[in-house]
Inverse folding.
């Protein structure tokens, strides 16, 4: 049994190494720089980078911007309290939103825990079928005031 665990641990370690290196050999890595996917890379603390969301695939377009935000948050496992200016303090554990920029065919919204700071930017775009959250970006949260400039 102990030998079997050791073999499983070794196989798992080897799999993780292969995944981490992208199946590259030493000669490959010496010749080619490592490339990261901007949609999955972690944003730097100085400048949050937009990330495509899964909502374009997983969530049907909504009739309104508010419904699109609600559907996206539900997909993240978060309850939506509605616009922040309509929350009353009984919405603990839920998120609320505020429109930061209305651009006709797209809207930039900021969302965060009700009665707290915003922590995420959302880009919501209108299509022929309705509104859909297409990108998100984390807001800077380093104890300093949150950056109020949307990254998209």
């Amino acid at each position: 049994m102990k030998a079997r665990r050791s073999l499983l641990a070794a196989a798992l370690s080897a799999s993780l190494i292969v995944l981490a290196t992208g199946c590259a050999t030493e000669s490959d890595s010496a010749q080619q720089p490592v490339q990261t996917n901007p949609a999955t890379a972690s944003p730097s603390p100085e400048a949050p980078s937009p990330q495509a969301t899964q909502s374009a695939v997983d969530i049907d377009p909504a009739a309104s911007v508010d419904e699109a935000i609600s559907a996206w948050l539900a997909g993240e496992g978060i309850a939506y309290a509605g616009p922040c200016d309509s929350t009353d303090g009984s919405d603990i554990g839920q998120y609320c939103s505020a429109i930061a920029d209305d651009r006709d065919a797209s809207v930039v919204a900021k969302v965060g825990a009700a009665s707290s700071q915003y922590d995420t930017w959302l880009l919501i775009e209108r299509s022929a079928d309705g509104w859909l959250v297409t990108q998100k970006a984390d807001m800077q949260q380093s104890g300093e005031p949150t950056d109020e400039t949307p990254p998209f």
